[in-house]
Design a protein that fits this description.
Subcellular location: Cytoplasm, Cytoskeleton; Nucleus
InterPro entries: Met_Sox_Rdtase_MsrB_dom, MsrB_Met_sulfoxide_reductase, Mss4-like_sf
Strand order of the largest sheet: 1-2-3
Cofactor: Zn(2+)
Keywords: Cytoplasm, Cytoskeleton, Immunity, Innate immunity, Metal-binding, Nucleus, Oxidoreductase, Selenocysteine, Zinc
GO molecular function: L-methionine-(R)-S-oxide reductase activity; metal ion binding; peptide-methionine (R)-S-oxide reductase activity
Oligomer: single chain
Distance between the termini: 16 Å
Length: about 90
Amino acid sequence: MSFCSFRGGEVFKDHFEAGMYVCSKCGHQLFNSRSKFKHSTPWPAFAETVREDSVSKRLESRGAYKVSCGKCGNGLGHEFLNDGPKRGLSRF
């Protein structure tokens, strides 16, 4: 499943089948479907990445990081601290 090819609607928001979400540009593994959870935003939400180097992050504002593919730098969106499915977890 390729991730982050936003073209007028996010096709993976309500997709909960088992699998791996990868960068749409280079195929780098980003998120496992086990870390996906329902959220009120129009995009898919994940609690954690597959590996520590799956994404690169830079602080954008208090409580939010800009997130890119850890391999090719393709923009993926944000990590919001303490907005995950459980207290203390992030939302990607």
